[in-house]
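Extended Data, panel c. Modelled sequence:
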Amino acid sequence: MTSARPLELFHFGFSKRQNTDWRYKQSQRVHCVDQVHHLEGLWWTQWTRSSYLNTLTPVNPFTELMNRESFIELNARDRALALLDPGTFREILGPFDRVESPWLERQGITPQSDDGTIVARGRLNGESAVVIAIEGAFQGGSTGEVSGAKIAGSLELALRDNENGIRTRPLLLFETGGVRLQEANLGLAAIAEINSAIVALRRHISVVGVIAGMVGCFGGMSIAAGLCSYLIATKQGRLSLNGPEVIEQEAGIAEFDSNDRQLIWSVSGGQQRYATGFVDFLVEDDAQAIRATAILAFENLPIVHRSEQVPAYLTKLASIDVSEDFNDGSMRERWNIGEQL
């Protein structure tokens, strides 16, 4: 077999923080999947490493791709279903409960009966879990009074479970532009409650967030994502406090062109956020890979949460000359240099 190297984008079972050695070792028993590129061929193959056999089993990459279930293409309810153990999904305050925003209709917007947020109880790898999934197709996944209360209330109930010795895993699926402008003050108050609940919960158990789809995670909810113990993202996902249109509106198109997709993803895309340490796991758009990564993320609490490292981040920022233009590669290089100071 020709020499090969692992593809950096598909380490679905391991965190960057673990400094895992991805070089191929035939005798090493590792339970993971590596995509391997044959340098002298024009095709991709995938090898499954067994935790029980010290051999490599070839898998047809095209069959693997066709059998993959896209997580991005699923709506919020189906995403929660895909992550929870089969047969354990139970929705709380679902569409038939008719808990919807009282503010949208008077502004000429048709409300949604679940206000664009799905809360599901069930089990994840046999353990009690609550999955909170935001529907990006409704009002851009924005958070208002009702949806925010559903998220905050669910996290607070999970906190009560953990305080009473009932280990309950909180998993948030972000697909949101932030606060709903039609309910701005109420949405902001709800996000403050969400953030407080996350900080309280992570003293007992990891709070895991997923940023998978094209809406991404912006505004006030990006702060909630930043407070999570671990973040999982696809390369299609985006994470930023301000969205491209907001930056262009405030700073001008010369500063940031919101139509330049390459620029946008080079700044806030999942691959960039992973490379600069703001995302812990970078996975393919595969529901089962995201589920496996979420299970792994709940195994241990981080030694130090990102939000507890403010002085370190300020030192990094102070070391970077922001007067020069950046591209995705130079941004990573300069950020990593700042990390070493």
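DSSP finds eleven helices and eleven strands in the chain. This feature is highlighted in the accompanying rendering.
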